[in-house]
Amino acid sequence: MLADKKIVFSGVQPSGNLTIGNYLGAIKNFSRFSEDYKTFYCVVDLHAITVRQVPAELRRRTYETLALYMACGLDEKKNTLFVQSHVPAHAELGWILDCYTMFGELSRMTQFKDKSQKHAENINAGLFTYPALMAADILLYQTDVVPTGVDQKQHLELARDIAERFNQVYGDTFTVPESYIPTDTMKIMSLQEPTAKMSKSDPNDNAVVRILDSKDDIMRKFKKAVTDSEASVRFSEDKPGVSNLMTIYHAFTGKSFEDIEREFDGRGYGDFKMAVGEACADGLAPVREEFARLMADKAHLESVMKNGADEAAYYARKTMSKVRRKIGFVN
Ligand code: AQP
Question: Domains of the chain by range and CATH?
Answer without folding.
Answer: 2-185+297-327 (3.40.50.620), 205-292 (1.10.240.10)
